[in-house]
Amino acid sequence: MAQRNSSRRGKSNGENFMDYSLLFIVLFLLGFGLIMVYSTSSYEANLDFGDSAYYLKKQLFATILGLIAMMIVANVPYHFWERFAVVGYIVSVVLILLIIPFGHESHGAKRWLYIGPISLQPAEVAKLCMILFLASMICTMGKQIRNRKGFLTVLLVPMPIALMLWQITNNLSSAIIVVGIAALMLFVSCPDYKRFILLGLAGAAAAALVVFVIVQLAASQPVAEESGVGGFRGERILAWLDPEAYSSGKGFQTIQALYAIGSGGVLGKGLGASMQKLGFLPEAQNDMIFSIICEELGLFGGFAVIIMFIMLIWRFMVIANNAPDLFGALLVVGVLGHIAIQVILNIAVVTNTIPNTGISLPFISYGGSSVMFLLIEIGLVLSVARGIRLKDLS
User: Fold this and answer.
1) What's the pTM?
2) 12 located within any domain
């Protein structure tokens, strides 16, 4: 990858590469997502708004805008965006700060800004801008990232954004994704894997310590759910460890999701035949949509979705490995990290493998800002792919 850092080949060296496989996978996930958004939301949408297609229409509008943005970005040379790296970082900070006076609150979280009829989630802007900024920064630093000072600098750069997302928007999952993107981009740029092993062990130890402390506090106060032991996130951890004990509170959504997965069996009940979406599973079209997929289409449908994401990640790896230069490769790695981390976290939450963090399934869950900015990221990847010459593919 590194040896291509300075190679920007002319058009005379071969035809441009267009990754139709990647495009097909993305379009499939979008189409499947629209079907599942309608399936999971039609009952509640009809009750709340008198229109069973209410959520579908909003998601379709955001998807169309995202596809238009994707095509525009895909046809612009990706180095054009490098000049906006610093601006993007600053814009991310400003948008998150604007949440304090102008943010719109929904379901107990203040994470959205309204620009006319359009809602914008600054967390999604921050993820895209962080990928762009880190790719530019790592290329500028060059071999300096291999020493301790450079390594720590790259790791610390996303921390202000992550902390603001966590504290201002109460969005820990997006903060984790921002840090995860930085770690993955640094991982592929720096060959000293020992540092990453130590960081991983330190992170795992810190997480285990937090869980241990919360459990001990809960043991000393039997009415933990009512007393709020460990705060809001402490209750989520306790509900993760024993969801049935918190079935009337933080564990309710998890239990209903597990019911949905279990009742679907191998082949599912059939598209549209879910029972859990009929008021039992709150906001089924958002974070828990994977559980409805498993209920309606069974484990077969769930595994099919996972396979599609694995194929998507594989195409990212092919493009990153053949990118014309390091900047392009890092852009693709950043997008890969964003989508891969988000998919893993979402499925882990739905299956109660980790505590509930409130994170959507890329391209499938309901959410206009999410799908729009994900498609812009796909546009960047396609732009990098267009810079590859067919004769250079390996």
Assistant:
1) 0.90
2) no
